[in-house]
Design goal:
761 residues; alpha/beta; 4 domains; six-stranded mixed β-sheet
Length: 761
């Protein structure tokens, strides 16, 4: 791995100096602090050229400013005022440890340095021309033998949109699996859409809020851009906002909170109903908004009837007075009150009702698209480069039914009414011959659920095409491996929604800081190379990715060169108002989903009500038992992103140091276990332990701490079998997982019943 001495250090640009929040930022710790090391030599920075770009390590476009000296990136920082990487105008932009370690990643000698193809069962080095020709031959043979409709597009992390056009429009597969709904937070995203607020039901208007609830979220360690923790700090500092965290674990966000509700896992839905009961009983709900702009309130009122804080306390383990206090505080601050939810309440079998019950609180207090509440974020709309060039793309997937809805083998799965695929069902589809190949781009499906099933499925598939910068469980088992460039070696453009500018859409972009290292290529060039080898070159007339991006930017009368020149690489585009729902047709918010036919069909098969309700743990997913009495869950850390960074030594060292275990040779993940669970099992910090479920097991190092509640054990995901680290050190958290999932969206249920044994147990 690259040493920090070879390529210089990272400047520490960590404090929010503007807007009076420097003191708060200094206390943030893990999320905004960078690595403790020397600054790079002054000469290397003074003589360096500047290149702007976007960090894509967790696909949220925090802007980056790279310092390049003789073709080497010697330093990298954030960009001041960036919509995703700062707290807004006049504030400093930063990068988190994941983003900063692009510097290491770009010049890492352990990267995949060139393409590979499989011959006689073994991967061998190949030229790009050879790899493209080989891929085209295999794709054509695959279509003839199995049909293109059985090829799965898993291009989640591509920095270019053309992968959809390659696989859907040109190759003709309707099978697509993405991160958001399928493996990240399906109940959160889909419930929000059905209830009228879209997937943005997870992202409040931080800076303008006076009361913020982080519900199953830890944005001071795991965030969708630096603007999240910075926005929270600004709300606290400027508005005197109250910060509440609802989480089974004592996290970095808990440390900054006014109130911590250490809820029992998988009981969030009960807490949300009790809060609604209090708000209605105290007549604190927004009567005008509810009566004029919502649907199904009578069903909601009936759902919360009798669900008192005392009732919820028995289920959640919380104090009823604390439940009542938070409910009243939230309602009294509304509409300048927001709730942030994401994976923590979604990655459970009863996550659908948790998401519906929590989201309903926003409609109840009328904070929908109002300052400080649940903002209905808008995105800038770039031009379609194919339309700009007058290219009429075919749709060769048209009329092809996805396997989940086509075959009777899947009629037992209600998810088929709402989604076209489910991550945990892919191995079954492979076994049934309904999926026979995959294109996987910088993703890690082996870590996203049903790991053993996916490992076997990858081996069984007829054709596996991988695009990645590192060797991992997919690339090692692929038929074709394309060596992907890193973010610093690519031209990029971003135009997301939520950000630190509450009333503006925005775009950000930049040109590659350095040429692709070794014999690697950006994903745009890889996909165009595949297209040309398949005879589809006429659909891609652009000379390079910059020309493609320029066509996108033509909607704003900009070029990538213009966007990334000067002292920043972002532009604010259109201004849009609050209360956008006033211009819409129908209700702004739905409490009851009986008007949504796909959900009605799925709910009927699962026995769910269309209105909010309490669904106990184990109704869907695992129940704890005498044999498996502990609840296991995997979490995120600021150092890692979806399994893509764990090969980098600097990040792994920081993770070990955080647990005071840097003196051990072990560099895997740690099992956090409460002393009350560790002591009777004879487990101490630093000992290797085995986590075992009904269907699998894994070994990792114990970390005994009251950070997690009794009966609840956690680890950071992304390690173990199939990981980037060559020795697979640590535990693949999904090795104990089988097919548990939310029945409505197919979201993998990452809460698993386990027991933990000492190393000799």
């Amino acid at each position: 791995m690259s040493s920090q001495g070879e390529y210089g250090g990272l400047t520490r640009r960590t404090m929010l100096k503007a807007s009076g929040v420097a003191a708060g930022a200094a206390a943030v710790g893990g999320c905004l602090s960078m690595f403790d090391q020397e600054d790079p030599p002054v000469a290397s920075i003074q003589d360096a050229e500047i290149a702007y770009g976007n960090c894509w390590m967790c696909c949220h476009d925090c802007s980056q400013k790279a310092y390049v000296n003789d073709g080497t990136v010697v330093d990298i920082t954030g960009v001041d005022g960036n919509p995703r990487g700062s707290a807004g105008p006049g504030t400093e932009g930063t990068l988190c440890p994941k983003g900063l370690n692009q510097l290491d990643k770009t010049h890492d000698p352990d990267r995949i340095k060139q393409p590979y193809i499989r011959e006689d069962g073994e991967l061998r080095e190949a030229s790009w021309e050879e790899a493209f020709e080989y891929t085209a031959e295999r794709l054509e043979a695959f279509d003839e033998e199995h049909g293109a409709e059985t090829f799965l597009d898993a291009g989640s992390w591509a920095e270019t949109p053309i992968f959809r056009h390659i696989w859907r429009d040109l190759y003709g597969t309707p099978e697509r699996i993405g991160r958001g709904v399928h493996v990240c937070a399906g109940p959160t995203f889909v419930a929000g859409g059905m209830m009228g607020v879209g997937s943005n039901n997870r992202m409040p208007d931080y800076q303008n809020s006076e009361y913020l609830i982080m519900w199953g979220r830890n944005p001071f360690s795991s965030f969708a851009g630096q603007f999240e923790p910075k926005g929270i700090l600004e709300a606290v500092e400027k508005n005197g906002a109250t910060l509440v965290t609802i989480d089974p674990q004592h996290t970095q966000t808990v440390q900054k909170s006014d109130t911590w509700l250490p809820i029992k896992p998988r009981t969030d839905g009960a807490l949300a109903l009790a809060m609604g009961q209090v708000i209605i009983e105290e007549e604190l709900y927004d009567e005008e908004f509810v009566e004029e702009w919502t649907y199904g309130f009578d069903a909601y009122r009936e759902a919360v009837d009798g669900k008192t804080p005392e009732w919820a306390a028995e289920i959640t383990g919380l104090d009823p007075d604390d439940i009542r206090e938070v409910a009243i505080g939230f309602a009294e601050a509304a509409p300048q009150a927001g709730i942030s939810i994401w994976t923590g309440t979604a990655q459970v079998g009863n996550g659908w009702k948790a998401a519906q019950n929590i989201t309903a609180l926003n409609g109840l207090v009328g904070n929908v698209d109002r300052p400080g509440g649940l903002r209905m974020w808008q995105s800038a709309s770039p031009a379609d480069p194919f339309e700009v060039q007058g290219i009429d793309l075919p749709n060769n997937a048209e009329g092809k039914e996805p396997a989940l809805r086509k075959y009777e083998e899947y009629e037992e799965y209600p998810v088929r009414h709402v989604e076209t695929i489910a991550h945990n069902l892919v191995p079954e589809m492979v076994e049934n011959g309904h999926i026979n190949g995959i294109y996987c781009h910088h993703d890690m499906p082996l870590k996203d659920g049903n790991a053993q099933g996916w490992l076997e499925a990858i081996e069984e598939m007829e054709l596996v095409i991988a695009v990645d910068a590192y060797w991992n469980g997919i690339t090692r088992n692929a038929d074709v491996v394309f060596a992907d460039a890193t973010q610093l070696e690519k031209d990029t453009i971003g135009y997301g929604s939520w950000n630190s500018y509450s009333q503006h859409t925005w775009i950000t972009g930049g040109k590659a800081a350095v040429e692709p290292q070794y014999d690697t290529k950006p994903d745009f060039d890889i996909l165009v190379g595949i297209a040309e080898a398949m005879g589809w070159g006429e659909y891609f007339p652009w000379e390079d990715h910059e020309a493609f991006i320029d066509d996108q930017l033509s909607a704003f009368d900009l070029s990538l060169e213009e966007l990334s020149s000067g002292d920043r690489n972002y532009e604010l585009i259109d201004e849009y108002p609050y209360e956008q729902w006033k211009d819409g047709d129908g209700p702004a918010f739905r409490f009851d989903l009986d008007q949504v036919p796909p959900f009605v069909a799925a709910a009927e098969e699962t026995g769910m009500d269309t209105a909010p309700e309490w669904v106990p743990p184990g109704t869907y997913g695992d129940e704890l038992s005498e044999e498996y009495p502990l609840e296991f869950y995997d979490t995120r850390a600021v150092y890692f992103s979806h399994g893509s960074d764990q090969a980098l030594d600097r990040l792994t060292e920081k993770y070990a140091e955080r647990h005071d275990l840097e003196d051990r040779e072990y560099r895997g993940n740690y099992l956090v276990i409460n002393p009350r669970d560790a002591e009777p099992r004879g487990i101490e910090t630093g000992e290797m332990v085995t986590v075992e479920s009904e269907t699998g097991a894994g070994e990792l190092m114990a970390y005994v701490s009251e950070r997690t509640q009794p009966g609840f054990v956690t680890t950071v995901y992304g390690y173990g079998e199939g990981s980037l680290r060559p020795d697979d050190e640590g535990m693949n958290s999904m090795k104990v997982h089988d097919t548990q999932m939310d029945p409505i969206t197919g979201q993998p249920d990452r809460h698993v019943a386990v027991d933990v044994h000492g190393g000799d147990g």
